[in-house]
Amino acid sequence: MPVTVTRYLLFRRSRRLAAAVGQNGRVRKVITVVGASVLAVTLAGAAVDTGAAIYAEYQLARHVRSAARLPFDPWVAILGFPFIPQAMRHRYDELEIKANGVEHPVVGNVTLESTMHDIGLTQASWLMRPDAELPVGMLESRIIIDSRHLGAYLGIKDLAVQAPAEDTDDPTGGTTESGISGNKGLVFSGTPTKAGFDKLVSVTVDLSFTGPDQTTLVLTPTGVATGPNTADQTVPDDKREAVLDAFRAAVPGQKLPFGLRPTAEGARGSDLIIEGIVEDVTVRLDGFRR
After folding, report:
1. CA pair distance 219, 100, nearest whole angstrom
2. Tens-digit pLDDT profile for residues 166-209
3. Opening angle at CA 115, ends 95 and 206, nearest 5
4. Which of 104, 107, 202, 203 is the most exposed place for a label (fewest CB within 10 A)?
5. SS (H, E, C) 1-27
6. In terms of residue numbers, what domain contains 135?
7. Computed from CA positions of residues 76, 78, 80, 82, in that sequence, does the dihedral angle turn out positive or negative?
8. How many CB atoms lie under 10 A from the CB of residue 183?
9. Domain count along the chain
10. Is residue 176 one of the residues assigned to a domain?
11. Domain-located, residue 190
């Protein structure tokens, strides 16, 4: 008799266990189907959102090209995810516009950049009509002059530009949020053949602006630099002034996108960058290139 009871109990337990396993399997299947459906909807929504953002960026690039009289579409990015809720509330969080190789009457070519924060779209629509006014919470504008074009302007073909030593040692890489160094003690290295000196030399240079509209960049050499991260080349006393003068210049026509006045000038990498920042301003896309 005990054997019969034990076998009966084991049989009942195994049936209950099998039923529980079967029920758990069905629950897992339901969860899997629901999860897959949610994932599919999420991915589809993300694809639609990304597609709308890409289309808006394409239209914005075309509008900037037309309004600013550029020979090519600039690079643009409407930042922040998701995109569609920003468009629906008629306000973009942030967008960037960048045009490389823009013809410049003084230095040949420059790069123009602009970053807008908190952009109202009530008049412009989500596709940003080129003739519409855009209220902007904060606007950053930059002109970038690379060392090759600056060197051609100065008559120093092998010119290289470095940030001041104290900024180079700074782990942040610069003194502004966009990584621009200070404007004092930049290191310009090159061969100033027009000064009758045919050796690579490094000179410290200060940057400033002048003119009624603050659109002329002034390069003021302050001394010959030697030691680490320089050409480490001394200059004879009788050549010193001529060598320094080879790095001295006024570079007019530095008009920032949207007509901003410079608030910072310095180096980033081997480029000179002029930057202006202003808050609560209204602009139009045709002001990107002045």
Report:
1. 23
2. 765 555 555 566 789 999 999 999 999 999 999 999 999 999 99
3. 165
4. 104
5. CHHHHHHHHHHHHHHHHHHHHHHHHHH
6. 51-287
7. negative
8. 20
9. 1
10. yes
11. yes
